[in-house]
UniProtKB/TrEMBL annotation:
Known catalytic reactions: a 5'-end NAD(+)-phospho-ribonucleoside in mRNA + H2O = a 5'-end phospho-adenosine-phospho-ribonucleoside in mRNA + beta-nicotinamide D-ribonucleotide + 2 H(+)
Similarity comment: family membership: Belongs to the Nudix hydrolase family. NudC subfamily.
Pfam families named among the record's database cross-references: NUDIX, NUDIX-like, Zn_ribbon_NUD
Taxonomic classification: Bacteria, Bacillati, Actinomycetota, Actinomycetes, Pseudonocardiales
Record region (Disordered): 1-34, 68-102
Full protein name: NAD(+) diphosphatase
EC class (word): hydrolase
EC number: 3.6.1.22
Limits of the Nudix hydrolase domain: 200-329
């Protein structure tokens, strides 16, 4: 049995008596690009990597030009709230529409960031002013197409969005308040006034699939929804890690705060970057009793329910939703968690 990135197994689901795993690699964890760390401080080598490189443009809403492939011509990018495709396999329906760097000058603009290289191709990213209409189907974001891109393109767009979002929020030194500048091909910023150097910020968050106590993997999963989500859209519980807190402690605290349930048997499943704006989602599984009354946190959780495995399987088989239940889109690690659990024996 081989193991894929993120702690997932190549098997469709855990066998009887085995704890479930992720159904497949989290969609935004896929990457094939060498990030070229050794080149970032070499001005000559950076200049050599600009002409003829492939450029990923990203607008202020995190969208980039995409094109359809194969048998999906004419299908518009999707919203990401319960998208089609029950399979946990990744990508291939869309590709990034790279731009030619020649149209942006003979050398890398100061705002360009080096994403890395793969084979003979070098990749850069650049934030551009909004130039596409809101409903223009040729521009899409990670939620819409992250799971529909191939491995290389998914990794490129995830890294580009993460880096550019950080730069947008890191224009001033956190020590002295002076303006900072991009260095190391966009992978750091320094302060000319005080010399402080800062690196891209990532905020860890836990996301946990809680199942009941029936058998190894239970027969019911705890799903909840926020008021701001589309009607009938549910997911597993998540929350940000606080200062001085371990990941496991955060799991227990967040679930107790959000639905009033105590958990045990917390175990790691895998992780996925979620640069919206700058999170790292760390996936866990845990066990809780269905006898404990659920107490959704006022103002944060609209509804919370225990859902039987058969209903989750039906939603997955239907492409991600059935009446009353819309599952997370495939770009989220939550989808791989739910698929892995649903395909496992209870």
């Amino acid at each position: 049995m081989s193991v894929l990135p993120g702690g997932c197994s190549t098997r469709e689901g855990a066998g009887r008596g085995e704890p479930f795993r992720l159904a497949g690699p989290p969609m935004l964890s896929r990457s094939t690009v060498d990030r070229d760390e050794a080149v970032r401080t070499d001005a000559r080598r950076l200049a050599e990597r600009w002409p003829g490189a492939k450029l990923v443009l990203v607008d202020p809403r995190g969208r980039t030009p995409v094109r359809t492939l194969g048998g999906v011509e004419g299908r518009a990018p999707l919203s990401g709230w319960g998208d089609p495709g029950a399979s946990s396999g990744g990508g291939g329906d869309y590709a990034l529409s790279f731009q030619d760097t020649a149209g942006f000058g003979p050398t890398p603009p100061e705002r360009a960031v080096l994403l890395g290289e793969s084979g003979d191709d070098v990749y850069w990213a650049l934030r551009v002013d909004e130039r596409a209409d809101r409903d223009d189907p040729s521009w899409a974001d990670l939620r819409a197409v992250g799971a529909l891109l191939g491995d290389t393109d998914a990794g490129l767009l995830t890294a580009a969005v993460a880096l550019l979002n950080w730069h947008d929020a890191a224009g001033f030194c956190s020590a002295c308040g002076s303006p900072t500048r991009r260095v190391k091909a966009g992978w750091a910023r320094d302060c000319p006034a005080c010399g402080r150097e800062e690196y891209p910020r990532t905020d860890p968050a836990v996301i946990c699939l809680v199942h009941d106590e029936e058998g190894v993997n239970g027969e019911h999963v705890l799903l909840a929804r926020q008021a701001v989500w589309p009607a009938e859209r549910y997911s597993v519980l998540a929350g940000f890690v606080e200062a001085g807190e371990s990941l496991e402690a955060c799991v227990a605290r967040e679930i107790a705060e959000e639905v009033g349930v105590a958990v045990r048997g917390v175990r790691y499943l895998g992780s996925q970057p979620w640069p919206l704006p700058r999170s790292l989602m760390v996936g866990f599984a845990a066990v809780a009793s269905r006898e404990t009354p659920l107490q959704p946190r006022d103002g944060e959780i609209e509804e919370a329910h225990w859902v039987h495995r058969d209903e989750v399987r039906a939603a997955l088989a239907a492409g991600g939703s059935v009446p009353g239940l819309i599952l997370p889109g495939r770009a989220s690690i939550a989808r791989q968690m739910l698929e892995g659990w649903a395909n496992a024996s209870g």
